[in-house]
């Protein structure tokens, strides 16, 4: 044979399968956010003091292994200043949540990379989407690096992690979630109508995103600073509309980015701006015939507002606070789906 012939598999786009895959990964991301909330509320995030992407998959399997991990934890300020005298059993409890959080993060990466390789091999990815899907997979790796960067901020001179790094870690996860939902909706639309025009973000959409981003950022800072604990009354904060105790002595910028009283105040009242923006979006969708998206968005907004108030008045009950964070992630996913539908109706 003088000339080799190579059989090339013809492109066979499978948008419906791709959509189902990305929806499943989005659900997994919401699960990671939930466990991340538990990790934060149980003060478990600094229990693993090293980042071992491969060998860290397995927890300690022997008593000697557990003692070695515990000794590493004993060297950091959180143990020395807050948890001195903690038992090994209690350490295993906080270790579990941080370990599970990291395992689920790795699982998200696998859930993206392995099917992506399979769909690419089958030439099932529609034109123009390969780079986007690869970017989503790369974002998971970046998220892992940000997570370790966040943990590292609490290992030397602090008893907790930087709330700035925590906010970047959370917001990156929520951006990944929104991108997964948007792309899944693209594929679902393509499966129904291959000739359909891809939705685009409108001016209204960008306004909603900006307002919601501010609320999510404030919420992450409140979580990172444990600012939810500074008041357990609503709508007043310790019998005042504007709480006493705000420290303005280091300037307005420091107060707006670091003061727990002020950030709690801003988060609880900016939520109304976010709710109004999202309910107006729901109203617009309803008028354009997207009643399912409008109803779902309205219900999730109402649930999130209710859970936020309950988190405050229960003194940050752990499971209510976790539900508040999970519903926040669901709200991001629902908003992404709603904005995708808005882009379709505006096209």
From TrEMBL:
Pathway: Porphyrin-containing compound metabolism; heme A biosynthesis; heme A from heme O: step 1/1. Its EC number is 1.17.99.9. It catalyses: Fe(II)-heme o + 2 A + H2O = Fe(II)-heme a + 2 AH2. InterPro entries: COX15/CtaA_fam, HemeA_Synthase_type2. Keywords: Cell membrane, Heme biosynthesis, Iron, Membrane, Metal-binding, Oxidoreductase, Transmembrane, Transmembrane helix. The chain crosses the membrane at residues 21-41, 103-121, 133-151, 163-182, 203-224, 261-282, 294-313, 319-339. Pfam families: COX15-CtaA. The keyword Transferase does not apply. It is found in: Cell membrane; Membrane. Heme binds at residues 267, 324. The keyword tRNA-binding does not apply. Its cofactor is heme b. It is a multi-pass membrane protein. PANTHER family: CYTOCHROME C OXIDASE ASSEMBLY PROTEIN COX15, CYTOCHROME C OXIDASE ASSEMBLY PROTEIN COX15 HOMOLOG. Belongs to the COX15/CtaA family. Type 2 subfamily. Catalyzes the conversion of heme O to heme A by two successive hydroxylations of the methyl group at C8. The first hydroxylation forms heme I, the second hydroxylation results in an unstable dihydroxymethyl group, which spontaneously dehydrates, resulting in the formyl group of heme A. Interacts with CtaB. HAMAP family: HemeA_synth_type2 (MF_01665). This is Heme A synthase. The gene is ctaA.
